[in-house]
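Internal ticket #5521
Category: modeling
Description: The requester needs a full-assembly model to guide mutagenesis choices. All entity lines are attached below as received. Residue total reported by intake: 601.
Assigned to: D.W.
Attached entities:
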Amino acid sequence: MAVSRQDVEKAALLGRLLVSPDELEHLTAQVAEILAYVEQLGEVDTTSVEPMAHAVELVNVFREDKVAPSLPREAALANAPHHNEQGFLVPAVLGE
Amino acid sequence: MALVDLSATEQRAKLNAREVTAVELAQAYLARIAAKDGEIGAFLRVTGEAALAQAAEVDRKRAAGEPLGLLAGLPVAVKDVLCQQGELTTCASRMLEHFRSPYDSTVVAKLKAADAVLIGRTNMDEFAMGGSTENSAFQPTRNPHDLTRSPGGSSGGAAACVAAKMAPLSIGTDTGGSIRQPAGLCGCVGLKPTYGRVSRYGLVAFASSLDQVGPLASTVEDTALLMEAIAGHDPRDSTSLPVESPKFSQTVNQPLKDLRIGIVPEHFAAGLDPEMEAAVRGAIEVYKSLGAKIVEVDLPHGKYGVAAYYVIAPCEASSNLSRYDGIHYGHRASEPAVEAELAAERAEALARGDKAAAEAVESTLVRLYRRSRTEGFGAEVKRRIMIGAYALSAGYYDAYYLKALKVRRLIRQDFDRAFSQVDLILSPVTAAPAFKLGKLVDDPLQMYLVDLYTVTANLAGIPAISLPCGMSKSGLPLGFQLLAPPLEEERLLRGARMCEEKRKS
């Protein structure tokens, strides 16, 4: 699968990144080289092999549904770039 | 012999015998750091004052006859990816340059409970992505054996500080080899535990199904000691294994009997540096001389490890790193600058008479995310986020991610089969000794291929240890790796200790 500049721009949008026009060519070449390398996985016969998403296949680890102390609001907001002591502040997301 | 030349185990004996105080030991290391770290750059921050206060507290407890933890008075360096309450945790990224952890990671909490003295935070590749520590946003780290060479990575600072005797014990993380590879290139010992053996709570996530915290030290005995302090089930990490963790320091000196060691012929094929090959074969001879039986085993899917890894790890990274949005914490771009940028784009589109394009300019919020992340992340992190986003996007998911997960299972099954015949597998840890700084920095694929020998242990979730087996003619450390079945760290440490002991004699 050849990787185009448009593919890289789309991946940048999905990854919430910006790629400047002067970076785009170099980056497209690098991404294409890496993806060409990983395409060797296609050689492997994986018919009826279950995907292994995790090294430890534990499922449904439950704990008692009990209230426990959590991070105080002040501490949770302490690293926020922009807050009003009650919540995180974001640019307006709804139009007028 | 200077204090810093002793192993942690020897220092511990001296502390217990009251021949030396924890404050004296901390002072010795702080002096060593002051003398050496200017040229090496292993530490991002040295917490000297806090360390001396912790050391004084240990001395007070000891004088008062109060109970002391396993690591009482021993300095430990922590990779800057594990949260430590009130301290910066930067992951060597501009994104988290000013981030102060509001809580302790479980590993840091365990170190504190063990009365360790936390002396500083070590350098790394940004968000642990890389194998040279050159992807740190703040500084490169140099290999103590040759300052023109890389210490490896991503736990390059963690390995370099042990190799340069600036800390006796050090905590690293290993997602695709990030403990074992730098340990190998710096000539120290590094253990990647079984996935789930050490809690990941408070570890800044890179690839959650692969990340594991582990110890680095100058001897296998010291590695066992640190491993004992940090291992164990943690209810706050749902992937932590609910099993009892052995007292590794008490068994590490017991040699294994009737040891069967597997080797994989392909591991010694073209591409392996001749001096490295000779040293690894030397380690095999050591085991033979100790009575071990050497058995050839087959890991037919091992050669696909790097390919599977460089799909799975970036996919998980792109998902994990989506949390850095410039809103909750971390770097945020200037909102007026973003507004101005968008206004200019709209005006430019209108000036060309393209009304649709003007309306299609994205919202302030989306551009704030994108600008904040673009300013906050370095090149390798961005590359991996994009590869992950691409591989997970509609139409490609089955071909990349799902395929890689299936190959991952085959890699694990290879190991399961091999371990039905042998107790441990012995392999190189890197194909060559430490490489020159700058050599691989803009060649991501070649950089990824350095992980050839290490990634399969992460994909399979099994424990592995790297340890020294000689020096090259030019004075660079050579190392090898042992791998064991899940939860067999005790076997791994005892097996590694046999070789270390024999090579010393």
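Resolution: model delivered.
Comment from assignee: The longest strand of chain B covers residues 464-471.
Ticket closed.
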